[in-house]
Design brief:
The complex is a heterodimer.
Chain A lengths: L4 H25 L10 E2 L7 E2 L1 H7 L3 H21 L11 H14 L4 H11 L2
Chain B lengths: L1 H11 L3 H5 L7 H7 L2 H7 L17 E13 L2 E16 L3 E11 L1 E3 L6 E2 L2 E15 L2 E9 L5 H5 L23 E14 L2 E12 L12 E10 L4 E10 L6 E9 L6 E9 L3 E11 L7 H4 L2 E12 L12 E13 L2 E12 L4 E15 L7
Antiparallel strand pairs in B: 1-2, 1-18, 2-3, 2-4, 3-6, 4-5, 6-7, 7-8, 8-9, 9-10, 10-11, 11-12, 12-13, 13-14, 14-15, 15-16, 16-17, 17-18
Classes of the chains: A mainly alpha, B mainly beta.
Chain lengths: ~120, ~375
């Protein structure tokens, strides 16, 4: 009984996580509910609220400030995280960078926040 | 580096809300709770998980590295061409298939024959399907590099490693071909908004497989680490329990430190198992701070590594049969991004005798998009 306990537990955990993740994926693929699609507040500058897709470019004054801050933070995260293992590469085309950062998300266990900031910085 | 230093202080003033403007932010309390996989399962009805960044649609890639390393090992010349293509195939917003093959040869002079001779060794380093479930969990199925310490997973490719020789303790804890066949759960996340450090983890299970090119052993294990961005310090530990005869345990520790003030990288690992134990410690310094020949020197890197391996109670064929120490120094020159020339000298001290090990070669990392790289 004890011999197979560890692999069984790990296997069970993996199966549960996989099932749960797939269920979550399905849930997220459904049309967004009003609560979940609500705008993310951006209290910086003149910006009051916006979603990510529209927040950065659509605010003439606050948007530029946010954009600049995101770029600086993205560069910081880029150098901090990429440099841990290898020379920080030059910029690649946006779609190439999107694939590479997803690969690094898995390989180097980048955080979600780091991934987004680095991708944002590298695709500007 | 100076540009980054100027930006560093400004970057600290980034309002948290600005980052939250990126898609899929999760509130702090939920993030902490969701960090625990079991709680994550129960918390999913909250619907707080974020969709990945989907502003840019990823394109399939053929990438990888190639190199030609000449090794002079105790007076014997080895020619080592190596090609390791990597295929990255993003599927939808959360899936990624990634595979790496390895083709390398060890060509040596055969007495009585002209030229160098050898066969091409082929292997599948990994072929895995990743599902990025949420900011905290990525599920991986298939064949994957065993996450025991960090060298095997993150520093192994020839274009990344600073010294081209493998650490003596590399075989400890990674299985017969440095890879596992099975399942893995991993992730990295910020510990808490109040604490400026990231946590990362990997838990895996591997099955026994004796098929050529994709062999693996039966074991289970995990790795956990902490990364402190403020000081650029990462450290962690690994554990593995063999589920084959002997049922032994292996464990290891790793650390990476990149001081912000210097272009210096310090890395170290320790590993211990029934088969053997040992450590390696490596420092690499970019000569970018000298006032003369700045353009050339900032492309130049000097490396030093000290390592030692000790034979354990149950010696393995994958580890060296005698206790060994080795000291190496190297010089790398980065011609362009991804293309570098490498040279090193090492002195090996073992019970079988001491010898010199020289290496000289070039490495190249290539990236080829398999589609339109610019459009959406």
């Amino acid at each position: 009984m004890q011999r197979g306990a560890i692999p069984l537990c790990l296997l069970g955990a993996c199966v549960c996580l996989a099932i749960s993740a797939i269920a979550q994926e399905r849930q997220n693929s459904l049309p967004a509910a009003p609560a979940s699609s609500a705008a993310v507040p951006v209290p910086t500058g003149n910006a009051s609220s916006a979603t990510h897709s529209s927040a950065i470019p659509s605010h003439p004054s606050g948007g530029e400030e946010v954009e600049s801050a995101l770029r600086i933070e993205g560069e910081k995260r880029f150098r901090t995280n990429c440099g841990r293992c290898h020379m920080a590469p030059h910029k690649f085309p946006p779609r190439v960078m999107a694939t590479a950062i997803r690969h690094m998300r898995v390989r180097a266990t980048l955080t979600d926040e780091d991934m987004r900031l680095i991708l944002h910085y590298m695709t500007q | 580096m100076l540009l980054f230093a100027d930006h560093h202080e400004q970057g600290r003033r980034l309002p948290a809300a600005a980052i939250q403007a990126l898609p899929g932010r999760i509130r702090g309390c939920e993030r902490w709770l969701l960090a625990l996989p079991l709680l994550w399962i129960t918390c999913q009805p909250l619907g707080a998980q974020a969709p990945p960044a989907d502003d840019v649609k990823p394109v399939p890639l053929l990438t990888g590295s190639a190199g030609f390393i000449t090794t002079f090992d105790g007076g014997e010349t080895h020619l080592g061409p190596i090609v390791t293509p990597v295929v990255l195939l993003p599927l939808g917003q959360r899936w990624l298939f990634e595979a790496r093959g390895n083709f390398e040869s060890d060509l040596v002079a055969v007495p009585g024959q002209s030229g160098f001779h050898g066969s091409v060794e082929k292997s599948v380093d990994y072929a895995q399907l990743d599902f990025i479930a949420n900011p905290y969990i990525t599920v991986t199925l298939g064949r994957f590099l065993t996450p025991f310490n960090i060298y095997n997973e993150r520093l192994y490719p020839v274009w990344i490693r600073d010294l081209q020789t493998d650490p003596l303790i590399l075989p400890i804890g990674v299985g017969p071909s440095n890879a596992s066949n099975g399942a893995m759960v991993r992730g990295g996340f910020k510990a808490h908004p109040a604490f400026d450090f990231d946590l990362n983890y990997a838990v895996y299970f591997s099955t026994l497989n004796s098929t050529e090119y994709i062999d693996s052993a039966r074991f289970a294990g995990g790795r956990a680490g902490i990364f402190i961005p403020k000081t650029r310090l990462e450290f962690g530990g690994s554990f593995q329990h063999s589920l084959e005869e002997g049922r032994s345990n292996s464990f290891g520790f790793h650390a990476i430190w990149e001081p912000i003030a210097l272009p210096l990288e310090i890395r170290a690992e320790y590993a211990r198992s029934l088969q053997g134990s040992g450590y390696w410690a490596e420092a690499a310094y970019r000569l970018g701070q000298f006032p003369y020949l700045e353009k050339q020197l900032r492309r130049t890197q000097i490396v030093g590594r000290m390592q030692q391996s000790l034979v354990g109670a149950s010696p393995s064929t994958s580890l060296f049969p005698t206790n060994m120490k080795m000291f190496e120094v190297g010089l790398n020159y980065y011609f362009i991004d991804g293309f570098k020339g490498v040279a090193s000298y090492g002195r090996e001290f073992s019970g079988d005798g001491n010898k010199n090990v020289w290496t000289l070669g070039v490495t190249y990392r290539f990236v080829i998009p398999l589609g339109n790289a610019w459009g959406n």
